[in-house]
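Lab notes, practical 5.
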Amino acid sequence: MPKIIIEREKCIGCGTCVTVCPMHFKMAEDGLAKIKDGEEDEKNIEESGCSKEAAQSCPVQCIHVKDE
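Output from the prediction step:
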């Protein structure tokens, strides 16, 4: 099962992940990206889908998708 991991301390709040993959990401009140419906920094998902594209699009490479 894939897992999304976000290193929020590295996030610059550009919103690219939300644009590319609104299914899994949203902007939090602090202006940084957050994983939807999960803990703040990781979430198991059924399939990686657009989350891999979001990870590749992140300018600071703070999103990781691991196939576990």
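Observations recorded by the TA: The mean pLDDT is 93. The longest strand covers residues 2-6.
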